[in-house]
Amino acid sequence: MKTVKNMKKWFTSLTLLGFVLAVTFNWSLLVSSKKPSDEEVAYVDDKARHYSETGQERLLSLAPSAKVHQDITSLDEALLKIKNLEQRLKDIEFRIPKKYPEVNFLTFKDRKRILVTGGAGFVGSHLVDRLMMEGHEVIVVDNFFTGRKRNVEHWIGHENFELIHHDIVNPLYIEVDQIYHLASPASPPHYMYNPVKTIKTNTVGTINMLGLAKRVGARVLIASTSEVYGDPEVHPQTESYWGHVNPIGPRACYDESKRVSETLAYSYGKQENVAVRVARIFNTYGPRMHSNDGRVVSNFILQALTGQDITIYGSGKQTRSFQYVSDLVDGLIKLQNSNYSMPVNLGNPDEHTIEEFASIIHDMVGGKSHIIHKDAMEDDPQRRKPDITRANHVLGWQPLVPLQQGIKKTVEYFRRELMRSKHSERNLHDPVEAGNLRKALSNGVLTDV
């Protein structure tokens, strides 16, 4: 009996000893098989050294399986290596989730689906920024004649944003709550480039947007212009002034088609009960202006920055009133959401001669540019100043950004634009920064723009 018990003990002991030996043997094999190679040790050391020096992971280090010291014997090999590294960078960027500006959250009761025609343009893109930051769903429609995708690229892919490449001369069938109809070339070189197309955009395009508003019960804001006053004989211009326009002059394609768009809006309002708003927009400037749009602000700034003579057409005694783009966006949103349906002037009543404006930009930019005069443009308005009593009384709106601040911001934008040499060098206008400026000015706090 004792012999059997002793045998069982010996068998159990031998089994445990064999198990321990097997585990030890296998573990030693596992450890030896995972021993890093010299290349792998060098790779890890290189990454650790880079991280300790910069605090950032080195993305372009060689893979562990590659040779650390690889001689390049020809230019072709070097170019191929650079190409491979660039592709790896692109792959890494593709895997990194895109970050968007933090937008407000609205419930389904407060969130609107808003269509902005011409939303990739100068004014339209700033309006899109504001609507997106407020938390609305925004649909941009643009044919990219003067608009640019990069004006709204920071929203592409966001769940509240959609971009449609479409010409509003053709009908559009979507469901929306509000429409901001801004689509139209707005600078003389652009709207004179194809006068018939300009007329079609402001008439047929406006009919299509009013028809869409009628079908879906949306409210539509028509972006009209101070050009409906032509070369005014009344100063400043009130909304009750009918204007002084040459119907066959070089500006007529824009002036008269905008006047027709207002007529169409109120005809749809009376006949079809479409809720319409009409904004008569005066001279506006700011970041994202088209570099070759031929307007006073962009012309003067670019000429000063590049050392060219600042060109004034005519005597320079003609006057203009310039508003910063964020002030205009404020006015458009307030008008859209108001209960007022008659035309409203949106502009800055701070009036300057063209000569004064050229001197302001010259002094701010510096350089060796001289101010020169050339022959006046045909039908160029001699005086332009809005009466904004109605906007102030009905909307509680008035421009906030001082001229010096707005010009400074615009000069900085064009300076960065001139420094770009490739697409990867972005020149983005931060909507968060713009919102902070607006809040500061609303609270009466002047800050550097």
From TrEMBL:
<keyword id="KW-0520">NAD</keyword>
<dbReference type="InterPro" id="IPR044516">
    <property type="entry name" value="UXS-like"/>
</dbReference>
<keyword id="KW-0210">Decarboxylase</keyword>
<dbReference type="InterPro" id="IPR016040">
    <property type="entry name" value="NAD(P)-bd_dom"/>
</dbReference>
<feature type="domain" description="NAD(P)-binding">
    <location>
        <begin position="115"/>
        <end position="410"/>
    </location>
</feature>
<keyword id="KW-0333">Golgi apparatus</keyword>
<keyword id="KW-0735">Signal-anchor</keyword>
<protein>
    <recommendedName>
        <fullName>UDP-glucuronic acid decarboxylase 1</fullName>
        <ecNumber>4.1.1.35</ecNumber>
    </recommendedName>
</protein>
<comment type="pathway">
    <text>Nucleotide-sugar biosynthesis; UDP-alpha-D-xylose biosynthesis; UDP-alpha-D-xylose from UDP-alpha-D-glucuronate: step 1/1.</text>
</comment>
<dbReference type="GO" id="GO:0048040">
    <property type="term" value="F:UDP-glucuronate decarboxylase activity"/>
</dbReference>
<keyword id="KW-0812">Transmembrane</keyword>
<dbReference type="GO" id="GO:0042732">
    <property type="term" value="P:D-xylose metabolic process"/>
</dbReference>
<keyword id="KW-1133">Transmembrane helix</keyword>
<dbReference type="GO" id="GO:0070403">
    <property type="term" value="F:NAD+ binding"/>
</dbReference>
<dbReference type="InterPro" id="IPR036291">
    <property type="entry name" value="NAD(P)-bd_dom_sf"/>
</dbReference>
<dbReference type="Pfam" id="PF16363">
    <property type="entry name" value="GDP_Man_Dehyd"/>
</dbReference>
<keyword id="KW-0456">Lyase</keyword>
<dbReference type="GO" id="GO:0032580">
    <property type="term" value="C:Golgi cisterna membrane"/>
</dbReference>
<comment type="similarity">
    <text>Belongs to the NAD(P)-dependent epimerase/dehydratase family. UDP-glucuronic acid decarboxylase subfamily.</text>
</comment>
<keyword id="KW-0472">Membrane</keyword>
<keyword id="KW-0325">Glycoprotein</keyword>
